[in-house]
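Work Package 4 report. The design task specified in the project plan requires that, given a folded chain encoded as structure tokens, an amino acid be chosen for each position. We show below one input record used in the internal validation round.
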């Protein structure tokens, strides 16, 4: 049985917490470097509009050749991740990614079946939509979580459904189809994405494999140029970025 099938069968009955503290524990790290000059984006583009899907199935925003490479492992159902998105995502992108010296790659760490469903829906449009859709989940975190809590009792038998119906049923019960439809992903489009159960479960399997390989057991966890950090708040992370040589766009 794959990791994702175990998630589907085992996590629906577990209560979902609205905690803002980090969802686990991880190790610390730090880095330092010289101040870096901005790097120009290609003609007619801004770095905050440039997105590519990496070999790790992360969504890298900004200059793919940026000397400062920031990776975040995040769960779409984690309160601490929502807190970072609400306080740090905008300055990170507008003040640092925009300079071309910092890239920001977002990777999903899957904690439960709702998390897995949301991760697939965030991928259900163009790559450029992934970051904005993930941010919308986190900005509306309390509302999204409230509907998820209410959906758990409706999905006691979801494991008995055919695989191509399970994630559609989960998304419908939790209000995800309406949520994403209001943000440009039609119900038909979302249902088609979720009906491909193998692509959904592959996200969970990659999440588990990567987390095990890197020793990541907390969200959000940030990795800077290959080094796992203990910092999770924007204030602390900005300090680490500046120690690595990043400077905000307005400086």
């Amino acid at each position: 049985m794959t990791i994702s099938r175990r998630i589907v069968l085992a996590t629906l009955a577990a209560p979902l917490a609205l905690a803002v503290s980090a969802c686990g524990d991880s190790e610390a790290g730090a880095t330092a470097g010289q101040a870096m000059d901005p790097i120009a984006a290609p003609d007619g583009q801004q770095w905050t509009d440039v997105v590519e899907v990496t070999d790790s199935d992360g969504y890298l925003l900004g200059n793919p050749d940026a000397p400062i490479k920031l990776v975040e492992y995040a769960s779409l159902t984690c309160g601490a991740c929502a807190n970072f998105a609400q306080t740090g995502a905008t300055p990170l992108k507008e003040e640092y990614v925009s300079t071309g010296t910092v890239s920001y790659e977002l990777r999903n760490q899957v904690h439960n079946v709702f998390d897995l469903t949301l991760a697939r829906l965030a991928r259900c449009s163009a790559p450029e939509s992934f970051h904005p859709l993930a941010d919308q989940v986190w900005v509306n975190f309390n509302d999204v979580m409230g509907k998820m809590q209410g959906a758990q009792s409706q999905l006691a038998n979801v494991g008995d459904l055919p695989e191509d119906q399970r994630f559609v049923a989960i998304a419908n019960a939790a209000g995800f189809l309406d949520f994403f439809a209001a943000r440009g992903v039609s119900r038909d489009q979302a249902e088609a994405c979720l009906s491909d159960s193998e692509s959904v479960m592959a996200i969970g399997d990659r999440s588990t494999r990567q987390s095990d390989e890197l020793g990541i057991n907390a969200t959000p966890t940030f990795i800077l140029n290959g080094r796992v950090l203990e910092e999770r708040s924007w204030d602390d992370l900005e300090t680490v970025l500046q120690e690595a040589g990043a400077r905000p766009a307005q400086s």
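Confidence is low (pLDDT under 50) at residues 25-31. Validation will be extended to a larger panel in the next phase.
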